[in-house]
Amino acid sequence: MSQAETTDERATVATVCLGGCSGCHMEFLNIDHDLVDLLEDVKIKASHMIVDEKGVPEADIGIAEGVVTNEENVEVAEELRENCDTVVAWGDCAALRGIMSLRNDEDADEMIDEVYEGKADEESESPRGDVPVPALLEDARPLDDYIDVDVYIPGCPPDAEVMAYGIEALLDGEQPEIVEEKLQYD
Ligand code: SF4
User: pLDDT band for position 182 (50/70/90)?
Assistant: First the structure.
């Protein structure tokens, strides 16, 4: 057992999914057995596919997937910035606004009606009912339109190895350099 494990002086990481498809998080799991090695150096305090933790805990590295597309996303993004020393935009949606911004040409209210009301059956709950979905913002926008971002790891999703490299570089006190050949669009 490593010293980091016995004293648990591992660096801490929290990830959040904003307006994303969870593809970035899925790809992160593709690190496979290397995730075990990474966990020698890193404690994942929050990440919806790995840890059952609500909210954004304090962490050394905070990672966001997805665009900022609704009011809840704004709150989570601000919490991430407040609680994490280094903030990473994971994937094209968080870094650049990506495919999720295709909805920007549509009226937000009409889109909610079309998707949730127009296609609903009798048993569907209305998003405008007792437990409404968070209000859509007029546009889906990248993370750095709302908070300061320290590191960008583009791709859709970024390659698992590039994600791991980004975290390892930060642990070494370096700014990750994502060269063009490493960009992945699957
Ligand atoms: S960057 Fe691609 S994989 Fe990641 S959330 Fe956006 S659409 Fe999904």
Answer: confident
The bridge status of strand 68-70 relative to strand 136-141 is: antiparallel
Ligand 1 proximity of 144 Cβ (cutoff 6 Å): no
Q: Position of tokens 């290397």? A: 34
> How close is the Cα of 55 to the center of ligand 1, in Å?
21
| Assessment of whether the complete model's pTM goes beyond 0.85 | yes
Is 48 exposed, middle or buried, given 0-12, 13-18 or 19+ CB atoms closer than 10 A?
middle
- The model's pLDDT over 13-62, given as tens digits with 9 standing for 90+, comes to 999 999 999 999 999 999 888 888 999 999 999 999 989 888 999 999 99
For atom 2 of ligand 1, the residue with the nearest CA is 156
Question: Rounded to the nearest whole angstrom, what is the distance from the C-alpha of residue 90 to the centroid of ligand 1?
Answer: 9
Q: Separation of 65 CA from ligand 1 center, angstroms?
A: 7
- Looking at the structure, give the CATH architecture of the domain made up of residues 3-101+138-174: 3-Layer(aba) Sandwich (3.40)
The ligand 1 atom nearest the CA atom of 156: 2
Q: Where are the domains of the chain?
A: 3-101+138-174
88 to each of 9, 63, 76, 85, how far by Cα in Å? 21, 5, 14, 10
